[in-house]
Design a protein that fits this description.
This protein is an alpha+beta fold and 295 residues long. 34% of the residues lie in helices and 27% in strands. It is built from 8 helices and 15 strands. The strands form 5 sheets. The protein has a 7-stranded mixed sheet, with helices on both faces. A two-stranded antiparallel sheet has the order 5-6. Strand 14 and strand 15 form a beta hairpin.
Amino acid sequence: MKRLALVVAAAILLGAVATYHVNSKHAAPEPVIVLHRVASASYAEQADPAVIFALVIGSDVRSGDPAAGRSDSMHIVAINTHSGRGTVIGIPRDSWVNIPGHGIDKINASLDFGGPELTVRTVEQLSGLPISYWALIDFSRFRTLVDTLGGVKIDVPFPMHDPFSTADFNPGRQTLNGAAALAFARDRHSFSDGDFTRSANQGRLLLAALAKFRSETSSPLRLFAYFRAFRSLVRSDIPVAQLIHLAELGRRMDPSHVSNVVLPGHGGNAGGASVVFLEPSMQNLFSAVRSDGVL
């Protein structure tokens, strides 16, 4: 039987794929995740695409419309739908890139200039990868999401003590609630390379959520419970049948088979601001994942 194995970054971010609702009188007015298909995506004509690329965007909006601010995190999720392997590619938020129609600027400004659609166009232009889905979440809803999941277990790789993000962790495996997970994802002052390690930590958090989903949905009944629990947390235009297939694919994915990398670059100054200049070698990374999603 053919599997519609389309992976959405949100499936990893959530640790599950939620039941969708569009323009329903029962829908929550402020969903935790906004999850959409890219209108120009060619996957619709494919019965079983080999690799899917999705973009997970974390907005710096504290409350209100998450598309009204700048992106605080950005990750391309590449998944090989046949092997269940893949790659999470972190893009430093201060990357100095061309934003279509707006010239050179920090990549996080693309969300403010034109919403997730412009961010997708910017990332596609940068990477040459066809993005089929985008998922958007903001700070306050991220906390709600993690708390609804019952926390997430993660291996903290090194000491993290940062009063700006409120991160206060010693190394070791621990369960983080929503506030702690947000602090872990936002800390950039505990490391010498700042945004690069922060982006890698955000990737660690995505993979930890995937591991949680796999461990808690071994039975169809438990998987159905996840769908019910997330009904009010997601707004999406993806048909329910496709979401079910996505959830099944997420359940088969082994986080140990998903690489977590960050685009290479170095800090500098441009336009009167501190920015990240990406290295040309990033194209080698994009070329490596283009055909099969795997490094």
